[in-house]
Amino acid sequence: NRDRYAAHTSDPACAGCHDQIDPIGFTLEVFDAIGAYRTHDNGQPVDATGVVLNQDIDGGAELSAALAGSDAVAECTVTQWLQFTRGHELEGGESCTRDAIAAQFPAGQGTVQDLLVTIVRSDLFIQ
User: Could you tell me the pTM of the whole model?
Assistant: First the structure.
């Protein structure tokens, strides 16, 4: 797969996206198209290394740990769930509530269920 995707990154029309998505995708190469674990693909050993969040990552377990420990991912998760529950992109003063909720859920802390309960109890949801 890396050889095939190398062609995408050498084409300027494709590179803009593939430079962003391939590194995270490579870390999941140990899973085939239906999610079954594999160590070989077309007779070749699978290389599940990539660079995500400026960290060298080797496989899904390391990817999961890196994402769970990322403040940027935690903030994005809060924003996305808040926008989903509100039904629109955040506007003006809503960002203050988002920041207050995000402060309660630093990287690696709390669950999605905890986050959703906090959102529905917030002033934005009750209004």
Answer: 0.71
